[in-house]
């Protein structure tokens, strides 16, 4: 069945991949984005599509459209971007959730919330299952994002209990791939861009902190499976349970890209979580989902994307050059 689907934050990294995938399935997609961290270039190849529409819109304001499904992705995701205007970040999460839940209530649309592993804060339980309530600083530099997303989860469940809104809440763990911004600030894009430019890779702290990296295509498959599953609100973790230190990641990138790059150590930002790995038992059992793309393969595809974007010489490409599925435009 063809659905009319609203994606807030649809011109961003994840939103542009989701838009593409839903169009390929035959749906109509309305992308609403204020272009803070999203780029028209991410969706330039979709703008002429007869079932695609872009609206420049800020989710802190109400939006009146008629839709069957809503994916609420609007919110900067990279720490430097969400800390740039912390108050705006909270408004985006909280007012954005209220406005989109109001829209879902009026239209009867099923609504999906892009929540985050950050709601677990600096976790004391490892790996993190959905039943863990988290360890979050309410007043630190990351709180605008973490607490904004926590309140958004609360709003989703209150609209569900009080108004019967049909919700889907996913907790996304670190995801990477083509169309991250070169100056995004997140670790995978930072390391790849630095290596391709022959600069030193910046490790914050001692590099022993861990993260689990999911390739974007795997994540988007999980989004759609979840949205199509009845009688399951979540919250559900989506991420790749492979766990790496930032030192391991830097070494992998340097080895793949080659060149002269070394590692330099920079101060650790405050409240930086020491460890992170999803327990994906729930996603496996309820959605039949698990990631298929190993970090090494996903890095090859992402390096190839950035090499083309930055116009790097071919000796800076992973060998053998992987098949590129999609490019930015
Ligand atoms: P992104 O920054 O590329 O995309 C966010 C998009 O939201 C951008 O297009 C931006 O312009 C838009 N936006 C921001 N504020 C807005 C506002 N007030 N009104 C309208 N649009 C606005 O980041 P992403 O990685 O694509 O993340 C998408 C969503 O997934 C975010 O909600 C993020 O919190 C969540 N998430 C992502 C990850 C990840 O690793 N990529 C991890 C956890 C959660
Ligand atoms: N990080 C790093 N060098 C960078 C960027 C990030 O060592 O150039 C570290 C950062 O301190 C954190 C990890 O990499 O420990 C992941 O950072 P990112 O911003 O990608 O995501 P998050 O901290 O939100 O998981």
- The outline comes out as globular
Mean pLDDT: 94
Main sheet: strand order: 3-2-1-4-5-6-11
From N to C, what is the helix and strand string?
Answer: EHEEEHHEHEEHEEEHEEHEHH
Cα Rg: 19 Å
Uncertain runs: 318-329
CATH architectural designation: 3-Layer(aba) Sandwich
Tell me the number of strands. 13
> What is the first-to-last residue Cα distance?
28 Å
Q: What structural class results from the helix and strand content?
A: alpha/beta
Count of alpha/pi helices? 9
Q: Compounds present?
A: nicotinamide-adenine-dinucleotide, uridine-5'-diphosphate
Q: Helix share of residues?
A: 25-40%
Examine the coordinates and then state which fold CATH places here, giving the name of the CATH topology. Answer: Rossmann fold
- The CATH class label is Alpha Beta
**Strand portion:** 15-25%
List keywords for this structure.
alpha/beta; 36% helix; disordered C terminus; two-stranded parallel sheet; 329 residues; Rossmann fold; binds nicotinamide-adenine-dinucleotide; 13 strands; binds uridine-5'-diphosphate
């Amino acid at each position: 069945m063809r659905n009319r689907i609203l994606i807030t934050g649809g011109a961003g990294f994840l939103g542009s991949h989701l838009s593409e995938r839903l169009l390929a399935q035959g749906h109509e997609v309305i992308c609403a984005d204020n272009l803070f961290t999203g780029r028209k270039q991410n969706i330039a190849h979709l703008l002429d599509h007869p079932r695609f529409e872009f609206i420049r819109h800020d989710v802190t304001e109400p939006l009146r459209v008629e839709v069957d499904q809503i994916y609420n992705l609007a919110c900067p995701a990279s720490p430097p971007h969400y800390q740039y205007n912390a108050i705006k970040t909270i408004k985006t999460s909280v007012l954005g959730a209220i406005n989109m839940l109001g829209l879902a209530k009026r239209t009867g649309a099923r609504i999906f919330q892009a929540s985050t592993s950050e709601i677990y804060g600096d976790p004391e339980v490892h790996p993190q299952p959905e039943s863990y309530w988290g360890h979050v600083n309410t007043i630190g530099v990351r709180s605008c994002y973490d607490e904004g997303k926590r309140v958004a989860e609360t709003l989703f469940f209150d609209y569900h209990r009080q108004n019967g809104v049909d919700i889907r809440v996913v907790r996304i763990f670190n995801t990477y791939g083509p169309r991250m911004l070169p100056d995004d600030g997140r670790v995978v894009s930072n390391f790849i861009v630095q290596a391709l430019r022959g600069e030193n890779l910046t490790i914050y702290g001692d590099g022993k902190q861990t993260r689990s990296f999911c390739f974007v295509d795997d994540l988007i498959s999980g989004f759609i499976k979840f949205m199509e599953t009845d009688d399951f609100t979540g919250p559900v973790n989506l991420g790749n349970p492979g766990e790496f230190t930032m030192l391991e990641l830097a070494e992998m990138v340097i080895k793949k890209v080659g060149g002269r790059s070394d590692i330099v150590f920079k101060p650790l930002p405050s409240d930086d979580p020491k460890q992170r790995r999803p327990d994906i038992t729930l996603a496996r059992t309820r959605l039949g989902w698990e990631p298929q793309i190993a970090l090494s393969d996903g890095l090859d595809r992402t390096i190839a994307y950035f090499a083309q974007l930055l116009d790097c010489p071919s000796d800076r490409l992973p060998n053998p050059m992987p098949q590129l599925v999609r490019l930015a435009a």
